[in-house]
UniProtKB/TrEMBL annotation:
One of its GO terms (cellular component) is cytosol. Residues 50-507 form the Amidohydrolase domain. This is Putative D-aminoacylase. InterPro entries: Amidohydro_3, Metal-dep_hydrolase_composite, Metal_Hydrolase, Metallo-dep_Hydrolases_sf. GO terms for molecular function: hydrolase activity, acting on carbon-nitrogen (but not peptide) bonds, in cyclic amides. It comes from the Bacteria. It comes from Actinacidiphila reveromycinica. PANTHER family: COLLAPSIN RESPONSE MEDIATOR PROTEIN, HYDRANTOINASE/DIHYDROPYRIMIDINASE FAMILY MEMBER. Coiled coil: none annotated. The lineage of its organism: Bacteria, Bacillati, Actinomycetota, Actinomycetes, Kitasatosporales.
Amino acid sequence: MAVLELVVRGARVVDGSGGRAYRADVGVDGGRITEIRRERDGGPRPGARRVVDADGLVLAPGFIDMHAHSDLALLEDPAHEAKAAQGVTLEVLGQDGLSYAPVDDLTLKELRTQIAGWNGPGADAEFTWRGVGGYLDRLDRGIAVNAAYLVPQGTVRALVMGWTDRPATPRELDRMKEEVARGLAEGAVGMSSGLTYTPGMYASDAELAELCRVVAAHDGYYCPHHRSYGAGALEAYAEMIALARESGCALHLAHATMNFDENTGRAPELLALLDRALDAGVDVTLDTYPYTPGCTTLVALLPSWAAEGGPEATLARLRDDSAAEAVRRALEVEGSDGCHGVPVDWSTIEISGVASPALSSRVGTRVDGWPTARRLLLADRLGTTILQHVGDEANVRTIMRHRAHTAGSDGILRGAKPHPRAYGTFPEYLGRYVRELGVLTLEECVAHLSGRPAARLRLPDRGLVRAGYRADLVLFDPETVAAGATFDHPRTAPTGIPHVLVDGRFVMADGRRTGVLAGRSVRRSPARAGRGA
């Protein structure tokens, strides 16, 4: 009998399919699962150079974060313990229509300002790429966990049209389609949009449909942050489903929450909408995080017209008293499109991070009105990150039970007091919503965190504990697994997750980060499928 590199012995295997758990020895060699010997099978147990005694532990596929904002964090801190410690072995980047490829020099400069609140300024990122393939090549130098990428539609629009609020000309639309197609051919798994973020929100449904047809032709999926999560949320979801139906493109709804007081208890209406679409043959999935507050940038709340022309134009409007007063009215009276059509309640807005060290004392405080918000936006050059306390727990629990549900942290890792979802989403699901509350069974939950997202990504050898599959695996204690991260202490590591493997190599062992950088880009295209080149 061959001696394997690793055997995980006597584990309770929860295989990511949703099927019942079973006890087995699982052998790993050459980065893949090579043998699964169930307890009932009998016969000799596999031998290995390294044996992990998994008595009392669950062995599951590595978790897939369907909505991550680690685009620069993976480059600036490749060890990436924030996600590795949670059992995450794959993240999907390029979210909400704004990221760093494809770009030219001017677009990159503008984006670094516009989304500094998500990712920081990227001072240590070495922006040597301009296209999607170049960015993925940069990830392939070595990162803790695997990463897939969505072509960001807002970035593409900024590259082709700048930050202007007008319809695309036929020539501009053709160029945007070419950029999306190029990004998909270079390895992106789909396209994202941020339809409450500029400039992506300036696109009409007709423009988006043309881009989605390109995505469908490359067998990718469309991941929109749609036009409203507040007033008009259900209409916004229906708009995206109609877009998927018209274009023939698979649809994955980003952080599919029902927030703000207007939507308290209305999750069943959303799920009924999804069920009708699924029953009619629309390929639709969604992701959520297991928390009520949201997290974004302070500048994102502003009306879209205030951002036309780019970050410097926004700052100029904020300096002008009459323009700033118009912004205030849009926020406080009308309900700006950036705040989902809901008049802002400043008492729900908590500062979670600032770009300027001089403003650090503001972290953890609530915004007490527009004058304070305006001063912060100017002093921090739009780099302020916020928590928005507008969620509904009943909605959170209802949505996570749905048959199309997957998990996404939406984790913004920067700031002195980030949202704990960045460090706690996956153990929070397993500890609170499985063990403590029983909202999901363990088998259901693991399927939501692994097998189901792998199916959405159309990855043929990930997301399940199966012979021949990639050995991206997590071992956790179902009795103790829990998120350590809280709103007061958001960077606390989770408990109960001793071992995490990426490509058969331990990135976490005995609860400690090993320093191994086994992750690479995960690409899906005719030319370069599977792992990075």
